[in-house]
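Sequence only, no structure available. Ideas?
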Amino acid sequence: MGQMLLYMLAQKAGLKFSDLSITYTTMNDGILAAENGSLDIAAAGVTQRTEALKRHGRVVFSADALEVGDIVGLICKESVYTRRKKDIDTLTKMHFDCEKYVLSDLDHHSDAMLAYLKANASTKYTLPEFKQALTYQYFPLSIKDINDEILSPKGKYSIDKQTTIVNQYLLDIGIAKFPRLVPKIVRLGE
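Reply:
I predicted one. Tokens follow.
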């Protein structure tokens, strides 16, 4: 994702991607190298961004500013959804209910997540840092949000728009020989 964002930024600046000097590192090593002046810029996920900001780093651009997102979620075959519609709809509703619960009152509903991150993540978030980190991400809170913002061609994180961007990137850097099609996506709630 970081390389694709750099590709998009180079395009916006009128540069050829092939003219950039890229060093491949892990995200944690990249942040340290940028902090110590060995790299000019480094890709960062939410955890690395939080660490960089703690150390007075600066965010130069974000995926959100370029209107792309790292779309994650549950994927299943249409036949599985048809066969287990009730179970998958229940799981989907439970997911949205959990998000809504936590986001409705971060001051009082974040304890379990902060404990999990403390035990498992390299960044030990304080409650204010955790609240700030959540602002870096988009959380659809309903099927309508997914349909409007991801599945609609006019949505901010349109899967069609992102497929076009990824295809252009893969073709331009020579990874793909022809564009990939957007997979058929079953719209829930329809």
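The radius of gyration is 19 Å.
Hope that gets you unstuck.
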